[in-house]
Amino acid sequence: MIIESPLDLVFRDLFYRLRNFVAGHDIFLKLEGFNVTGSIKIKTATALVEDLERRGMAQPGKTVLVESSSGNLGIALSLVCAVKGYEFICVTDPIANRSNIRGIEVYGGRVVIVKERDLVGGYLGSRIEAIDQILRSNSNAVWLNQYANLANKNVHAEETANEIAREFDKIDWIFVGTGTTGTLAGISEGLRGRFPKVKIVAVEPAGSVTFGGMPGKRHIPGIGASVRPELADLANPDQVVVMDERKTIEACLSLVRDHHLLVGGSTGTVLAAVQQIGPAFARGDTVVAISPDLGEKYLDTIYDGAWAESIAAYDASFATASHPAAAE
Predict the structure, then answer these.
(1) pLDDT > 70: what percent of the chain?
(2) CATH of range 41-143; options 3.40.50.1970, 1.20.1250.20, 1.10.760.10, 3.40.50.1100
(3) Which residue of 33, 103, 114, 137 is 20 to 30 Å from 293, comparing CA positions?
(4) Where in the chain are the domains?
């Protein structure tokens, strides 16, 4: 294969068969972490920018593109903007991994870190406020708005869903982690027409409000939200599974031990949900799970024992403070 641009480095047909991952069932993990910039978000980033170009809202060398991201989309947008000739500003928060921030900067993006939590204890509301300030101060700035932009959904309906459909004669279950819900809404739209009986399972961490959960402090970036994204109205999952972050960490460590692959926090959350729902699988069911990225970016967090212990300690103290009877 000879490529003309790094944006061509998207691997669309990589599925890792996890044999007997749930008793009696193999799981097919769609690996997106081998794409350029290391995640599924290169598809989203390219689609968001090219959508603006089609609508005449972006001009290379003049337009400043702005987005909120905890890391993966920020890195992807930084590369896309570098290739296409746009200035890029990424608004993020302290949860973002240092490696992600450096990746954005190395590709040429500028990083703005908000440090104050929003009214429900997350950072998304604060990030959006920071974007509003940038837009008011710079008439050339345009917000891509991954949370409401239909291009986010459409690229996964047209690309990711088709990639899955080409690989399997039938699909009974698909598990997708939720952030902006663009991937979830797109895959759902793209697969339901082909596989009417497919069960779409949305997976989000405890503390995320997207599907009606109580807001709470979260530590793992890239999944969940403290403000419900508009695209969630188009997702329509058959089932929503909420996972504790400690289960995410356990699933990541278990996958390395048993299947020898480092995966990111979103993947760990999804695999924990697969294990939880596993008893509902029927014999012969085809189960697919989306792995948005790999785990090298999380070596100082999810795969660091001291960090993981600090999360467990925080969760225990929070539970005790919220429910004093738990201490009895």
Answers:
(1) 95
(2) 3.40.50.1100
(3) 114
(4) 6-31+159-304, 41-143
Tokens 């709470």 -> residue: 216
Collapsing DSSP to helix, strand or coil, 289 comes out as strand
Give the list of residues 6+ apart from residue 109 with CB closer than 8 angstroms, or none: 74, 77, 78, 81, 82, 88, 89, 90
Q: Locate 12 and state its tokens.
A: 């669309």
Dihedrals phi, psi of 67, to nearest 5 degrees = -150, 155
Q: Determine the Cα–Cα distance for residues 194 and 205; give it in Å rounded to an integer.
A: 29
Summarised one tens digit per residue, pLDDT across range 174-209 is 999 999 999 999 999 999 999 999 999 999 999 999
Please state, in angstroms and as integers, the Cα–Cα distance from residue 168 to each residue in 153, 171, 264, following that order: 22, 7, 25
| Bridge partners, 294 (sequence order) | 263
In terms of Cα–Cα distance, which of 314, 324, 175 is closest to 244? 314
Residue 327 has pLDDT above 70, yes or no: no
- If you ran DSSP here, which 8-state letter would residue 293 be given? B
CB atoms within 10 A of CB 233: 11
- Which of 182-211 are b and which e, b meaning 16 or more Cβ less than 10 Å from the residue's Cβ? bbbbbbbbbbeeebeebbbbbbbbbbbbbb
* Pair 137, 143: CB distance under 8 Å: no
CA 109 and chain centroid, separation: 20
Distance between first and last Cα of the chain:
63
Same topology between domain 6-31+159-304 and domain 41-143: yes
Task: Tokens for 172, please give them.
Answer: 């009974």
C-alpha span between 18 and 148 (Å, rounded):
34
Q: Are 146 and 43 in contact (CB under 8 A)?
A: no
